[in-house]
Design goal:
The protein is an all-alpha fold. The chain is built from 4 helices and 2 strands, in the order αααββα. The chain has a domain of about 60 residues. It starts with about 35 loop residues before the first helix and ends in an 18-residue tail after the last helix. This is Dihydrouridine synthase 1 like.
């Protein structure tokens, strides 16, 4: 199977099909008008969308959810945190977001019921519990029948 140099394989490739060869993209066909039809269709879609000012995805969502409003001016505006710019808690004592409020309440050992942070209350409870612990331990050492607290040896086993 020897080939001469001027001869090409049937697919229009310079070498046989089992040898790696570069791919050449075919040029545009002369009679093709499909791309212009797609452009005109897209132009019609853009004209329809210009009156509604909503993107295609928003229009689809509106078809699925006709009662929902997509107007950005109707979205609720949240007050910003003084320190970081995140939305602050509406009932926060310090007027901060949850993260900043947690840091501040921990530093000051304060409570923020708006965020459910109870550092001061927990500290007071733990101190009260620790204060009650020594009294409980003393009462446990003194038994109910032993007024002295420790058992005394009255007699010897040998005697």
């Amino acid at each position: 199977m020897s080939r001469q140099e001027g001869e090409e394989s049937p697919g229009g490739l310079p070498f046989s099909h089992w040898i790696c060869q570069p791919y050449f993209r075919p040029g545009p066909k002369e009679g093709s008008k499909d791309s212009t039809g797609a452009r005109s269709k897209r132009a019609l879609e853009e004209e329809e969308g210009s009156t509604d000012t909503l993107s295609k995805n928003k229009q689809k969502k509106q078809l699925r959810n006709p009662h929902k409003t997509f107007d950005p001016s109707l979205k609720p505006k949240y007050a910003k945190c003084d320190q970081c710019g995140n939305p602050k808690g509406n009932r926060c004592v310090f007027n901060l977001c949850r993260g900043c409020c947690k840091k501040r309440a921990f530093k000051e050992t304060a409570d923020c019921p708006g965020h459910g942070l109870l550092f001061k209350t927990k500290l007071e409870k733990s101190l009260a519990w620790k204060g009650a612990q020594p009294r409980l331990q003393e009462s446990q050492q003194v038994g109910p029948g032993d007024p002295g607290g420790s058992p005394e040896v009255v007699g010897s086993a040998l005697a």
